[in-house]
Fold these 2 entries.
Entry 1:
Amino acid sequence: MIKFIEKLLNLIYVQPCYFCKSIKEDKIICSRCYGKIHFLPAGVFRKNEECNIYACTIYDEIIKKLIKDLKYHNQRRLAPLFAYIMANYWKKLGLMQNYLILPVPIHKSRMKERKYNHMDIVAQEFSKITNYKLNKDFLIRIKDTEKQYKLHKQERIKNIKNAFDINKNINLDKNTHLLILDDITSTGITLEEIIRVLKKNGYCNITALTLATPDIWN
Ligand SMILES: [Zn+2]
């Protein structure tokens, strides 16, 4: 009986688009809202210490809501969409190597407050799509930093300096192709600092992929 009711409910329930609430398509994002996303051309967005940094989209309306709600409003069901957008862009690059995914970590005090690191769950979903392995524990955040967007460039640099380290208990081949995943890149300081730490520890094959950038001219 319960099974029957469940089946019936599934038939009746139509998932509205998360962004415009339209029930026409029964999808988390309708094609109209998906079409509003501004994908950047497939290519290197920025280079840092010989490492390629890619940004998938411009940080506007839909992407802003996607990041904010997944990160701060416990909307974990948005993670597959987040990863799908990234994977969709990533595919276009046609890179053939096998990567190890490293999500940008948050500090443990932030983890206590938010209960989860949104990039961990995005990385899980991204790993499912791409079949790349994932290591959530290799990169660690050793400094509880101020929120970057509140600060000026010089303060940001100071704030993020020495904020990351690698987990010395995890033994990774130095030639592993590492793929750092993050949500936004603006000044690029966070990625720069992570790349610096990885290089200092002998890793040289580093690539970064971010969902969005607010500044396409950067
Ligand atoms: Zn929609």
Entry 2:
Amino acid sequence: MERQFPSSIGYFPPSKGSSSRSMRSARLLRVARSEARRALSSSSGLAEENAALRMTVAALQRERETLLSAAKSSGVQTPIVSLNEKSKFVGAQGEFSPELKFWYPDIDSTPPVLPCFRLIDDVGLPVQGSDAAMPPLEQEVALACMRTMLRVNEFEKIFHDAQRQGRIPFFLTSRGEEACAVGSIAALRPTDWVLPQYREMGAFFWRGFSFQEVANQLCANEKDPAHGRQLPLHMGSKERHILYVKSTLGTQCPHAAGVAYSMKTAGSDQVAITYFGEGCASEGDVSSALNIAAVHGCPTIFFCRNNGYAISTNTRDQYVSDGVAPRGLAFGMPTIRVDGNDLLAVMAATKRAREIATTEGRPCLIEAMTYRIGAHSTSDDDSKYRTAEAPEAGWDNERAYWEARSPIIRFGRWMQALGWWDVAAEEAVRKQARKEAIASLNAAQETARPKAFTLFTDVYDELPWTLAAQHDSLKAHLKSYPKAYDNLAASADL
Ligand SMILES: Cc1ncc(C[n+]2csc(CCOP(=O)(O)OP(=O)(O)O)c2C)c(N)n1
Ligand SMILES: [Mg+2]
């Protein structure tokens, strides 16, 4: 079993002057961990794993309450949940901070290593000092975020397997990075423009894409609005204010500056958000986009998902700087680094970025630190290059370490502490999503292929002579070999 119990669960520093209390804490934690380990070792599925994790969280919470009341009665200021000393993300390591601070290059003197903003720790407990920046999140919105992350997760599992079975040609997952897309899109307005890279399924689902719509696109059937002419996952929707995914890395970024500029000149208060990976950030287009957006005060949110890898390239072969954030500062825009596996921090940072973009009329950069759990795509074998060592002792490998810190687990624990979430709720959402995903795959595969004539539509009002010649040639070809193209039987439409 790959999933491991987080060995570093809970950050309860020994409280000053109270060794017996800290010894009791340590003992309680040891017991909780061993209970959970026992449950996990006999676990055969997600429900058991979740139950085990939650058992420990409950123990941690009980202990936390005991510490709190002891501190209160003795009048001692006891740090309850300390900040994790340093982040261990592949792409940049620095201190964590609960302060929602965008660094202004024109005002602040910036530290050599930017801190990483987080509100909840690795076990989903609010970090000390997080109250001020905690976004006011209603239960309904929190539930919607959780459901969306889970639905992304389940949908992606089914379609990843479908690719392995040869049912679709290509797929990639956002496993482990769900909070980047969901936390940021939930902080924006439905009319703000989105210019995705390709790992932002959460943004599509949040904006109302159904499983069936995505399945139609993946299966390239006649219900796909792009008539199967795009690579799988390269979708978009004008009504939902999402521009099409483009394969040419980085091109979304200058477009985002342009879209935001047009919103500004039209007097609209819409903003544009563009997502890009740390690998994509090496494209010249990204630097051009950052500069032009800063110079022209375009209300653009540049959202960099730093997940440690660009296909097989580890970040240490991508840059030697402190991650990607310094580039925002260099081009003159307010910049923040955020724990991308903390949905609450991502949401708070994006909300603030939107405020800055609209009220100060300038772009912002958010560098969200995360980890790519899956392979780059189904065309990739990550066993060839993934770092074997975990960033902390006690873990099988790097991937296992990060899987245990997945945004779904962390946010789930945070919700559970509020009484908003439990194992049964999670299982119900997962089960329903799996059912829906399988049904959407089957329905999409049973739907007819696009008509052959759609190869020539939607770009030119009148076909140029070059395409007209290709049209005639295809028509003749299909007529000569009708049996070879039975799924293009509609050649008569040409
Ligand atoms: C201009 C361009 N160069 C190279 C590629 C091939 N390519 C596709 S994805 C990718 C890696 C991108 O990594 P990153 O931006 O970190 O995003 P991630 O896949 O990690 O989410 C590369 C090199 C491309 N699609 N476009
Ligand atoms: Mg990457």
